[in-house]
Amino acid sequence: MMSQARVDSVKKHCFKKGEKCTDARARAMELSAPQYFDAWLEWCNKRAWALLSHYWTTDEFKKKRLAGQTSRMSCEDAAQNRGGSRNFAETQQFLDLTFGPEKASTINTYAVMKSGMKNVDNTGRAGPIPSKKAQQRVDDYKAGCNDENSQELDPELLYKIGRGLPHGRVPIGDGAVDKEEVKAAAKSANLRPTNSESIRIVIQENEHLKDTNNQLKKTNDILTEENSVNRELIMRLYADFGKDAPADLLGRLSDIDARRSQVTESPHASHSADDDNPNDDSDADIPSGNNFSDDSDVGGGSDDDHEGSEGMEMD
Question: With bands split at pLDDT 50, 70 and 90, how would you rate the model's confidence at 83?
Answer without folding.
Answer: low
